[in-house]
Amino acid sequence: MDMSLILPFLLPLGLLLWTADVGVSLEDAICVIKTTNISGVVRFVQTSNWSVEVTANVTGLPPGSHGFHIHQYGDITKGCASAGGHYNPLSMKHGGPNSSVRHVGDLGNIVANSGGIVVHCRKYHNFTLHGTHSILGRSIVIHANEDDYGLGGHNDSLTTGHAGARLACCSIVVSQ
């Protein structure tokens, strides 16, 4: 029997059995933001195979709209600079959360009120907490400016939404 045909299926099966054995749920994830001035929590709940509800409660942001993205890496050892670019496994151009052409990590904007507080809840249908487009081990980045959804005509509109500097970030990890 050719083991090369069987091996690709054994690792995922082993991981599934291991997670079931140790009681790890892949249905909930969390990202905790802690900077000098900005703090908060972003929660992710897998509600169906291709639907994740994202809830963000953040304080300390400047009032207004801020780009809100999933970035490639969960490594924030060098602040938000080590998070990489937007999570884009399909090699698409940047877009808004309702665009058919967009990065998997393009979540749109969050809006801080006059007190710098964000309360955001939305379902997204193009990533999961497990499988091919899992966001576990990646990061959330909140940007200084509003995301133009790739429509702004700036040099970086089709890559970053012209969202500006990275104000805060956190690593997305499995939640209890």
From TrEMBL:
<dbReference type="InterPro" id="IPR001424">
    <property type="entry name" value="SOD_Cu_Zn_dom"/>
</dbReference>
<dbReference type="GO" id="GO:0004784">
    <property type="term" value="F:superoxide dismutase activity"/>
</dbReference>
<feature type="signal peptide">
    <location>
        <begin position="1"/>
        <end position="25"/>
    </location>
</feature>
<keyword id="KW-1015">Disulfide bond</keyword>
<keyword id="KW-0186">Copper</keyword>
<comment type="similarity">
    <text>Belongs to the Cu-Zn superoxide dismutase family.</text>
</comment>
<protein>
    <recommendedName>
        <fullName>Superoxide dismutase [Cu-Zn]</fullName>
        <ecNumber>1.15.1.1</ecNumber>
    </recommendedName>
</protein>
<dbReference type="GO" id="GO:0005507">
    <property type="term" value="F:copper ion binding"/>
</dbReference>
<keyword id="KW-0560">Oxidoreductase</keyword>
<dbReference type="InterPro" id="IPR018152">
    <property type="entry name" value="SOD_Cu/Zn_BS"/>
</dbReference>
<keyword id="KW-0862">Zinc</keyword>
<dbReference type="InterPro" id="IPR024134">
    <property type="entry name" value="SOD_Cu/Zn_/chaperone"/>
</dbReference>
<dbReference type="Pfam" id="PF00080">
    <property type="entry name" value="Sod_Cu"/>
</dbReference>
<dbReference type="InterPro" id="IPR036423">
    <property type="entry name" value="SOD-like_Cu/Zn_dom_sf"/>
</dbReference>
<comment type="function">
    <text>Destroys radicals which are normally produced within the cells and which are toxic to biological systems.</text>
</comment>
<feature type="domain" description="Superoxide dismutase copper/zinc binding">
    <location>
        <begin position="38"/>
        <end position="172"/>
    </location>
</feature>
<keyword id="KW-0479">Metal-binding</keyword>
<keyword id="KW-0049">Antioxidant</keyword>
<keyword id="KW-0732">Signal</keyword>
